[in-house]
Amino acid sequence: MTIPKTMKAAVLHAAHDLRVEEVRVPALGPEDVLVRVRACGICASDVHYYETGAIGRYVVNAPMIVGHEAAGEVVAVGEQVASLQPGARVAIEPGVTCGRCRYCKSGRYNLCPQVEFYATPPVHGAMAEYAVIRADFAHPIPDTVSYEQAALVEPISVGIHAARLTDVQPGKTVLVLGAGPIGLLAVVAARHAGAEQVIISDVYPKRLETAERLGVTAAVNVRTDDLAAAVSRLTDGEGADALLDTSGNRSALENAPSLMRRGGAIAVIGLPENDAVTYRMNTVVDKELAIQGVFRYANTYPAGIRLVASGQYPVEAVITDYLPLDRTNEGFDVAMHQKDRAIKVMILP
Ligand SMILES: [Zn+2]
Ligand SMILES: [Zn+2]
To answer: CA 238, CA 334: separation in Å to the nearest integer?
Structure first.
């Protein structure tokens, strides 16, 4: 197939300035594959860049293609690529690491200081007609997995990584705070790891209903119900073995130790809105709790693809909106302002 010179892409120029425009198709390196992107989810981080032009130390100083939750079809391969052929359907793992540093060598490659992660300035993302990725980060998917489901392997990966870090196992009780896309898919990851009970909390009924479709054993609306009382009732006063915070809410984080069983682990997923959080260390020490940061994921894609392919979990229930690339701005608007209804917005380039 002949590769066009230009393509349409959703390009963030500055805060509140996202344009779908013609840009050059990215150059294919010898170890890369070129993917015709078929689905790309809008993530909270994309929305954050849109709203503020920055996340922490990463600042949008030059036009950047957004999007890092992508899947599509390989249309060309670099001269050194033997593992994939044009026509392969793949989920894109969006952070290319060096493979040489101590983190990469130890398997914790999400901590590689040289990682080039999609849609993290200055690296372009995949909300476009085409994207390049090093071949070993393009993971083949079976025909039974749709491109939209494959794009969800990115947020599912966060849940798998968090479940591993908090030692979620058969028989355990997992409490997930926040029923946005990451929280909802963490439910699936926890169930897949064998959790016996998965409890979730949020304030939006629609999100809690979706959590029920994904198999939570209890959904607590913290606008009307007391979470601590519910957790105590559901765990015979023992508390949760693992808590996965996806809410980023300061008081939720500060209350977390009181919700835990002795020996439990608290995972903080993503950056809380308040950098400074105060813990009662007496509780942390007395219960011997682990407080675990979660930064992206490593070695999760094959497991995430198998999870989706198993057909046991209707992961696509988190997708509430499908829009073509031309309407990406509308997608961002929905993601920002319709949290009572919309969960994951999927762009289909
Ligand atoms: Zn994401
Ligand atoms: Zn590295």
So the answer is: 40
